[in-house]
Amino acid sequence: MPKHFFFDVDKTLTPSRSPMLEDHRPLFAALCKKVDVIAVSGAKESQIRTQITSVFDGQYFVLAQSGNHVVDKSGTILWKEEMNETQVGAVTAFIEMIRAELNLRVKDENDLVENRGSQISYSLIGHHEDLAKKYAFDPDASLRLDILKRHAEDVRALERSGAEVKTGGTTTLDFFPLGKNKGRNIARFIEHLGWIREDCIYVGDALFPGGNDETVVGVIPTRPTRDHNDTFAYIAGIVERL
Predict the structure, then answer these.
(1) How do residues 225-236 score in pLDDT, each as one tens digit?
(2) Name one Pfam family in it (predicted).
(3) CATH number of the CATH domain containing 105
(4) Which of 16, 41, 134, 239 has the most C-beta neighbours closer than 10 Å?
């Protein structure tokens, strides 16, 4: 039985950018009382806490912005590493290139790009677009993966500037400092706390090649999940055994 449970947030613990379902909260509370729970997301800390809800503040660790902003249960910041001007400039140029190529009609042009400090996230149709539209837009991430494949040379140029890109959430491309992805930061976090990797498990919906959870594979044991309902079916089984 693992002692330390790492969870992606969007489509793993909650619907995309939405609060944890009421029916799931008792199970999450029971898990937090028995083991270490760590929320890992490309989102900002404030967004993660909004989705998991304030009821659970102080009961779990936060690895925000792909683990480049880490906060312990007491609210103490363990580290926060932000992107520099060169990285931000290269990412901005990459995003503008993709936006011009796709030329999508969107509800709000100002809702596409979020510079979160340690990470920049570009939603192709809008971070706050209707949830059903977001789920239907690119459900298997194939559109976004194809974009990155077609622009392989541009991705390499981005890396030379010190930034990298992965698919994220339901409609986004996530940009962060090169090499400072979820897998690397989870390994750093485990080492910082003196935990044993074999005592950990990571649950995420994007462990597939090119997904934003892929970098965790090989760092600690992993379990793929289809969505938040599948995750909580798994948590229910864990809670029964604790």
Answers:
(1) 999 999 999 999
(2) Hydrolase_3
(3) 3.30.1240.20
(4) 41
Distance set, CA 78 to CA 38, 41, 219 (Å): 14, 16, 20
Shared domain check, 100 and 62: no
129, 205: one domain = no
Are residues 184 and 207 part of one domain?
Answer: yes
- 189 membership: H or E segment, kind and range: helix 182-193
Q: Are residues 154 and 106 in the same domain?
A: yes
Same domain flag for 46 and 66: yes
Tell me the pLDDT tens digit for each residue of 115-159.
999 999 999 999 999 989 999 999 999 999 999 999 999 999 999
Q: Are 141 and 210 in contact (CB under 8 A)?
A: yes
Helix (H) or strand (E) holding 165: strand 163-168
pLDDT band at 194, cuts 50/70/90? very high
pTM of the full structure: 0.88
Q: What is the CATH number of the domain that holds 196?
A: 3.40.50.1000
66-86: pLDDT as tens digits: 999 999 999 999 999 999 999
Are the beta carbons of 8 and 169 closer than 8 angstroms? no
What is the distance in angstroms between the CA of the first residue and the CA of the last residue of the chain? Answer: 9
- Domain match, 91 and 151 both: yes
Neighbours of 50 (CB within 10 A): 16
C-alpha–C-alpha distance, residues 141 and 237, integer Å? 29
- Give whole-number Cα distances, 23 to 7, 28, 64, 78, 185, in Å: 18, 10, 25, 32, 31
